[in-house]
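FIELD: query
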Amino acid sequence: MHLVEAARPMFARHETFHPRYGWFRKAYAFVAEDPHIFLRDDASVEIGVGKNMVRAIRFWGLAAKLIIENPNSPRPRSPDLITTPLGDELFGADGWDRYMEDPGTLWLLHWLLLASRSRLPVWWLAFNEFHAVEFSEEDLKAAITTQLEAAGGWARPHPSSIKKDISALLRTYAPAVRSGRTGIDDILDCPLRELNLIGRSAATGRYRFTLGAKATLPPAILTYAVLDYVKRIKTRENTITINRLAHEPGSPGKVFKLAEGEMLACLEPVIERINMVGLAVVTGAPQLSWSEEPSEIAREILNDYYGISPISIEISNNGDRLSATASVGDY
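FIELD: result
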């Protein structure tokens, strides 16, 4: 998968704010109650934050694919918002993890932020096309600037926009560095730091992606991401090699920083439990197979993982809501 297929050409839409605790749930909950909330003059008062934060919360809800712009909005240039089926199933009244208490939900949100079509092209490039073992913020900026210049059909973003996206990325995932201007909220207030996907070298202090098995990544969440990825790349086959799942740009292996063996080890507990997915070795290459629609299997896997089966939403695309039969990969 290439950048132009995997991401949208948008930069620094987060108002320099990284996602804070509660913002994903808040974006979903406010839109579920009022699709016009982010268009209202009193949105800042209703949501209880400043105007810049209102725009940031809206962005992170869209970026995580919990809400979308209404395709049937009578005002296409300033559309209202609607919740997605996955948003409903995750944070709805009878959702899988209504109060975002399960650690697996953080891994799920991380996948959704990077899955196509991502609203974070700088982040997508950092996880998928940047291969340095250790790096500085400037190293990352230089590499991503070069890659964006090579992306056909995209206008070149302003250097300050790239810098803002990289800064938000590092504040989202890397350990916070205490300074005289760093408040306790800045240190504690980003949930995705718990994933430990970006660390710092003890020897040099430089950033580095954390490669290898992830102790807190639930096998069910990885399997969901694999099946969601299969849906997004629109393969007509019912098999895919573990090598592709580990190494292709945009794949779960890239997003979760897992090698082929680590992917296999994490997938095996689900493969043993769910008869709709299987593993075979063809000419020495392990392959994952599936016997039903990938999005349906993925949904059942999350039902099983969370121990809840949310009520399906039976409103078609012609109404106010998207069909519950649609997967996130459909938009």
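FIELD: remark
The first strand starts at residue 67 and ends at 69.
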